[in-house]
């Protein structure tokens, strides 16, 4: 039984071809309307030609791709855009992202992007939006409150416990002040909404709330608001 599907616009039934390609149980061959050739005969001839001229066909295809890079790039953009909206496309993208993150390639790719002109402009726009939100939601921040907060924490990050190295010799995990309720979620820039975190914890938290980030209440956060 053949796997060719009959299309009334392209095919018709004709007498049995010389190779005896019958379509199902009709006793007739499936032929093209355009030239009357047997569909199965054309398929067999095409497969035989490709097998005998495999290297030549690959060379021609490679040359065509080299000459039409822009056309291929535009076609691939449209295909990726449509495929990315499907459920399978989103799953494939998520698996690839997890794989890059596990191998450490995600951070390398992000760093390379930030060194480009487009990446620097994107980072500047992001910083400008953050400063604008901070200015609109400004509050009163006192140094005494910050000092009391650090003393209560013994100069350690309340999340990972790393000690802040103050002074001229600063380590990568240096002191930063994080907003417990992010500015993007209408949090205020005042004493009651500030918490000292190391740079690594602050960067991984991003603009998420602590409950979403840690999926559990943060250690002694209730006591920190009463220094």
Description of the molecule:
This protein is mainly α and 227 residues long. The chain has helices spanning 39-52, 54-67, 69-84, 87-103, 105-114, 117-136, 143-152, 199-205, 210-214, 221-224, and strands at residues 11-14, 29-32, 175-179, 194-198. The termini are far apart. 10% of the residues are buried. Residues 216-227 have low confidence and may be disordered.
Please tally the helical runs, counting DSSP H or I stretches of 4 or more residues. Answer: 10
Euclidean distance between termini CA atoms: 83 Å
**Rounded Rg:** 33 Å
Fraction in beta strands: 5-15%
Shape annotation: elongated
Whole-number tally of structural domains? 3
Give the low-confidence spans.
216-227
Percentage of helical residues?
40-55%
- Strand count, sense and closure of the main sheet? 2 strands, antiparallel
Count of distinct strands: 4
Tell me, what is the CATH class of the largest domain?
Mainly Alpha
- What name is given to the CATH topology of the largest domain? DNA Binding (I), subunit A
Q: Residue-averaged pLDDT, rounded?
A: 77
